[in-house]
Structures are given as structure tokens and as C-alpha cells.
Amino acid sequence: MGLQFAAARAVSAVSTWGLKHVFHRPAANFPGKIALYADPRVIADLAPRLQKGSVCVVGTNGKTTVTNLLADALETAGQRVVCNRTGANLDSGVATALLHAREADWGVFECDELWLAKILPHLQANYVVLLNLFRDQLDRVGEIDRIQESIAGALATSPKTTLVFNADDPLCAAIAERVGNPTVAFGVDEDLHLPQNTVADAQMCQRCSAMLEYAYRQYGQLGSYCCPACGFARPSLDCAARDVHLGADGLSFAAHGPRGDAEIEAPFSGAYMVYNLLATWAAADLVSVPAEALQRAIDAFDPRNGRLQEFAVAGRRTLLNLAKNPTGFNQNIKIILQDERPKAVAFFVNDKEGDGRDVSWLWDIDFEELAGQSGLRVFAGGIRKNDVQVRLKYAGLDAALVDDAAGMFAQLDGLPADARAYVIANYTALPPVHAELGRLADGGQAAGAPLSPKPSEGLSGSGGVQAAEDDAAPLVIAHLFPDLLNLYGDGGNVKVLERRARERGIPVEVRRVNHGEHVDLAGVDLVFLGGGPDREQRLASEDLMRMRDDLHAYVEDDGVLLAICGGFQILGHEWLLGEEVVKGLGLVDMTTERAPGGSGNRLIGNIALRSPLADQAVVGYENHAGRTHLGTGVEAFGDVASSTGHGNNDSDKRDGVRYKNVVGTYLHGPLLPKNPQVADALLIRALERRARRAGVRAPELAPLDDAVENAANEYVRNRLNAG
After folding, report:
1. For residues 304 and 354, which has the higher predicted lDDT (pLDDT)?
2. How far, CA to CA in Å, does 269 sit from each of 190, 292, 333, 344?
3. Any idea of the CA torsion for 644, 645, 649, 654, to the nearest 10 degrees?
4. Pairwise CA distance, residues 717 & 614, whole Å
5. How many C-beta atoms surround the C-beta of residue 172 within 10 A?
6. ∠ CA 181-186-190 to the nearest 5 degrees?
7. What span, in angstroms and rounded, lies between the C-alpha atoms of 568 and 562?
8. CA of 237: how far to CAs of 220, 260, 281, 422, 622, in Å?
């Protein structure tokens, strides 16, 4: 320590005073940020203040809860603790916490997964607690394998750090297998018999890329897994939860570990909280916190940060919680479903930088589980409330738009007084909702008004369809490899096509063709092909190449095919598979090449197109590293109509391809929910194929009420100044 460290402390002290006393803002990040400019080693310089050591908590979901609860447990046990309790989890937040602290026994720090590599080399923590890894903010952080590499690299810089990891998560177990650090594995050692969600983030072996098999799943990819090809499997558990009981108002389990056992109870619910508490217990045991001190900390736990926080608004019990990705939302829905009484639920979703700009993940949430709930009122809020409303509509939920939480409470007349309210918000939507609920709870009255009237129920249109000659012949949609190719909510396109046909009285059969399965395309009217992570896309491409001749015959026979992102690329002669350019299906005259600089050189952002398939601008989101060039005899899906957005490559401002009845595009979000005219154009062509195949007359599509879809489209168009 020298002049740099002295300068770092000085600028930190001045900025802290200014933020608190002049600007009246929290000083959670900025003092550490400028201190790191003055002394890049400030964390290493301050680490000796922690006389017994430190713990870093990382993972997609649950970091703030586990960090705060572990800090509480240590303090309950009489230890002095430094902790970044507000969730400021970059190196600047850790530096700020250390700069503001005096000498302490332990440091407990929440760390962003990608920023652990900037923190751990300096902190040299005793323990890193790895909770889970789920898809989150793909436009900002990329695919999960990038996060795995970053965490493994961070651990390599601190070889004495013990990795305490969730062995039920194959993505975490793969990191533990790669590193040379000491490890402690925790997990739930029994089947909780929970209903599963549609999308899981790890279907394939992390060692050999074969498909994993499960004895049981808890949620997402968490469970007891093994690979039949290479033997990769859940490691033996050092710390295990058994005899788990989940109720509407609490949970309990028996924790077993090498240093002893404990009975854990908590007034929280949800399988994810079992994992959070088990991780906390495993870490607390390692730092010599007695089990009774941890239980006292759990009993007194009141985070007051919007995570599982209760309010009473006009006498109505209200639960606020954070959810920022499909897994988080799905687990919150499980909590809501445990309440069988009438209730109100509001979902607030923003797309600021901290959230990720891409909201396609909304279509990986199983909102359908809420459909049919008696006495349920549903609301959509936040910057992307229109997208939430569209998603809820296709889940069979009639949601009203609201500007804020007060708008929700203003519409609860007629709901029983004991009916609870649930407010679920993503990252940047949470603080204002949290503050507003605090004000409403203090005042005891709800105010405000809805932004718009409630939309009409379901997908009601303005009439039926012209009668077909054979109403029994279904429209057949083949969804190719949904178990592998669903990176950007791609399955939402199939939901839209199916529902828009059914609402017109057209029978539909959706054939989900999973890896290793076969489909006779002669009996199919529309094929959908999405994109996936590199590992999954590679496996799916093997199946697709075996189908090449059948797909070629289908396309040349005017079969309808919609392909998104990686599914679009593989239609050409060459396409991008990871960092490689490989042979494609050759169904369309086009090629995709590797961008200069590799996969890090991506074309990312909201985009609007002018396409002959729609009268209004087609809107979506692009996120790809390939550079696609069209050949002769094919047309682009559309021309870029927005100031942002690239399309197929860096230069020609065109996106996608049209060839016969093939439509390929980089636009996801998914594509069809905000672009109903494109969905209907595909349906018309598919119905013409069905008519030829079944020997019947093709029906005319009656118009549907697309007010919700068009409002979502208009919001993006206006945001992009696309007219």
C-alpha cells in the first residue's frame, strides 16, 4: 500500500460524503468505482481487514437473498461482518463495502457471475458459493458457457478458494469438474415430485454433449442426472436436504452435512428457497456458524429489498418479489398457485440495460399455469407492458395494462377483502414498485387509475371462417427439435400460429419432433425451425442433415417453413456453427460466414423491417454473429426500416430470406406475436397446402381482434421511429 491506496481512500471518502449529504443518494457503487481508478488493487489492499476471511456468492438467481442471510447468520453468531447488502455486485460494489468498513471478522459479498473474475484474484476468498446458472440477459452476457468459463477462470486465480456448488445443477457441476479447487457439493437428495416447466437450460451433457437422463427433476435443469454415454452425473452430495416439506406459508427440511445435521424451517415457500437456504446452511457450517444461530437469522429475516417482501395495502396482504428470467418467473408462479383463493397478480417488466434489452424470454415462462384460476385478476406493467400483455393473451389470460402498482389496486373492487395481491417485477422495475408499495402501505390507501380498459377475452375475432369442405382435416404444424432449439422464446411462434388458427375454427395438430424422432413431411403443412445454443444446435444439425432430402422435397413442393436465427442460417449452403463455417442444408441459395473477430462481433438490438408480408413495419430483436449473404433467385424477408438494426450483415440493410413458401429471419422476440399479419400470411399458405393435401377447399381467414398485438408492435415502431 502506498500513494495509490491513499489516493483511493481519499477520493472514496469525498465521493461518499457528496453522495450522501449533497445528492442524497446511496453510495453503494461510485466510491469504489473511482477508488479502483486510483488504485486497481484497492480490494487486495483492503482484504486484510477481514481477519477470518471472506465468502463470495454467485449464481443467476438468489444471490442477494443468500448473501444477506449468511451475513445475518454470522452477525447473529457474534461475528463482525462486511457485506454489500444492497446487491451492488460488481468490483466497485465490493470495493465500496470494504472502504466503508472497519476491521471485521468476515466479508460476505454478492458477486456478478462475470465480475467474479475481477474480484476473486484480489480478494482470494475462502469460499465461493455457486447457487445455479440459468439463461439470463443473452444480449448482454451471452450464452451460459461464457459464464462457466469466466467463473472457472476466476477460481484458477485463487486456487485455495473452496467452491461450494449446487451439484443438482449440471452447469455448476461442470465447473466443479473443471477446476482444481477444493469443492463442497450440496443438493436436494430426494424427488420433490414437482410439476415441470416447458423449458430447461441444460438438456445436454456438459462433458460429451449427449442428451442427459434424469431420475428426477426439481425445476429447470436441477435434479438427479446422468449421461448414458460418458457417465457424467450428479456428484455425491457433501451437504444434502432431505424430508423436504413445501407449504403455502412455509417450508422445512433436514440438512445433513459432514459436520452435523440440522432442522431448517422458514416462513418462505418455493423449491428455489429450499436451495437458497441449503446453500446458506452449507456456507454457514463451513464458517462455524451454529445451526441455531442460522435458524434465528432465518426467523428474523426481513430483507426489505423487495425480495419476498410483504406489505399491507388498504388492508390487503401483498407479496412483492424479484424475477428476472424464465426460471425466476416460473418459480414465482408456483408460489402464486399455492394460493387457491381469488387473487390479483401484476407483472412488471422493463428492458433497461440492467435487465437486458431482449424480452423474448417472456415466451419461456409458463404463464399458462395461471389460466383458468378462479377469481384471478391479472395486470401488465413496466416499460414492456405491451409485450407482457401479448404474452399473457396467448396464455389465455386477460390482462389490463397499468402504469404502476397503484393502478392495479384501483381495479380490485369486487375482489374479496382477504384476497392477496402478488407483484412480480424484474430487475430495474423492482425499486420503483418497491418504493411505491411502501408509500401505499404507509398511507393505507391505493390510488391511481388503469392505463387502459381490460382487453376482450382471449383471441376473439370478428367472426368465424368460411366453411371448409372437410372440417375434420387438421392443419399440421411440425415443430422441429423444440427440446434443443428454443434459445429466444422461439416456441412462441408455434403458440401464435396454433391459437390464431383455432380461434377461427380451424383444427390444428402440433407435432413436436424431438431429437432422434422422425416426421413424415408429406403430411405436414407448416414447419417451424428455431435456433439454439452452440452445443444444442450442433446436435440438432445432425438430425436436420439426415432430413435434407425430405426437407428439400417439402420446400420444392411449396411446403411452408418458418426458420429463425440458427434455423435460418442452416437453410443455406454454408452456415455458422459456433466458430466454424460448416455445410448447410442447401435448401436456399445463401451462405453465412464468420464475422471478423468471431462470435464476440455480434449484431444486437431492436429492429424494424418493411416486408411484403405485412402492411405495417415488422418488429423484432436481432442477436447474431453470422453474416448472411443471399444468392440469386431469392428475396429478403424485409428491408431495415429503423435507424438501429442491421439484418443479414453489416452492409446491405436487409434481413432474412423469402424463397417459395420459405421465410427465414434473424428477428426473434419471438417474431409472430407482435406481427400478426406475418402469422396470417404463413397460415394462408399453410391452409392452401392442407387443402391440396386433403382435397378440400381452403378457408378464408376472418379478421381477429389484434388490438393487443398491434399496440405492442406500435410501441416498438414508435421507439425506433419506424413509422
Report:
1. 354
2. 18, 21, 11, 18
3. -110
4. 14
5. 29
6. 150
7. 8
8. 19, 14, 14, 35, 41
477: closest CA among 561, 570, 364? 561
Cα–Cα distance measured from residue 705 to residue 708, given in angstroms and rounded to the nearest whole number? 8
Looking up cell 399458462 gives 368
Which residues pair with residue 247 across a beta bridge? 250
84-132 confidence digits (pLDDT tens): 998 889 999 999 989 888 899 999 999 999 999 999 999 999 999 999 9
Q: How far is CA 399 from the centre of its chain?
A: 21
Cα distance between residue 311 and residue 304, in whole Å: 10
DSSP category for residue 595 = P
d(CA 269, CA 113): 26
Q: Which of 611, 608, 651 is nearest to 628 (CA)?
A: 651
* pTM across the whole model: 0.87
Question: Rounded to a whole number, what is the distance in angstroms from the first to the last CA of the chain?
Answer: 58
CA gap 34, 672 in Å, rounded? 46
CB neighbour class for 493 (10 Å; exposed up to 12, middle 13-18, buried from 19): buried
User: Phi and psi (nearest 5°) for 591?
Assistant: -135, 150
CA distance 575 to 582: 6
Q: Map residue 112 onto helix, strand or coil.
A: coil
Reading the block at residue 706, the C-alpha cell is: 389484434
CA neighbours closer than 13 Å in the CB half-sphere of residue 696: 18
**Catalytic member of 56, 83, 172, 565:** 565
**From CA 240, how far away is CA 260, in angstroms rounded?**
11
Report the alpha-carbon distance of residue 212 to residue 218 in Å, rounded: 15
Q: What is the mean pLDDT of residues 344-367?
A: 94
Cis ω before 290 (30° cut-off from 0): no
Angle between helices 271-286 and 326-337 (to 10 degrees): 110
Give the strand pairing for 654-655 and 638-640.
antiparallel
668 is known as an active-site residue: yes
Residue 84 main-chain phi, psi, to 5 deg: -90, 75
SS3 106: strand
Task: Decide if 501 contacts 683 (C-beta within 8 A).
Answer: yes
pLDDT in tens, 600-634: 899 999 999 999 999 999 999 999 999 999 998 89
User: Which residue from 4, 2, 15, 1 is spatially nearest to 38, judged by alpha carbons?
Assistant: 4
